[in-house]
Amino acid sequence: MADEELEAIRRQRMAELQAKHGDASNNQQGEEAKQREKDMRNSILAQVLDQSARARLSNLALVKPEKANAVENYLIQMARFGQLGGKISESGLIEILEKVSQQTVKTTTVKFNRQKVMDSDDEDDY
């Protein structure tokens, strides 16, 4: 191998290593940002909800994570705009859950497709 070819291979390998290391640091920064956001959400919810309401919300998150996320977003938005007058109790959280449930009602429809099958009564008409 010529020195030029060897140097080109070294440069290529170095570029690959730098790219790989750069991706790892970007992933780490993304994870850190997600963790900070999660911590911020938890601290706001801790300030807004009392213990029984937090327990109910965490139980809801286990069963229906989408609905729990919607309720959390609603509570955080209310807290940011100063619409909450204090800590929300479990009964207050239940009212908020009912509000969110009414806004996100999913209608389920059942449709029957019946196939026509040869029936003996149809043949007896002639």
From TrEMBL:
InterPro entries registered for this protein in UniProt: PDCD5-like, PDCD5-like_sf
Region Disordered, residue ranges: 16-40
One GO cellular component, as annotated: cytosol
UniProt-listed GO biological process terms: apoptotic process
Presence of keyword Chaperone: no
Pfam families, alphabetized: dsDNA_bind
Signal peptide residue numbers: none
Key words of the record: Acetylation, Apoptosis, Phosphoprotein
GO MF annotation list: DNA binding
Family: Belongs to the PDCD5 family.
Record function comment: May function in the process of apoptosis.
PANTHER family found in the cross-reference section: PROGRAMMED CELL DEATH PROTEIN 5 (PTHR10840)
Name of the protein: Programmed cell death protein 5
Species of provenance: Mola mola
Upper lineage: Eukaryota, Metazoa, Chordata, Craniata, Vertebrata
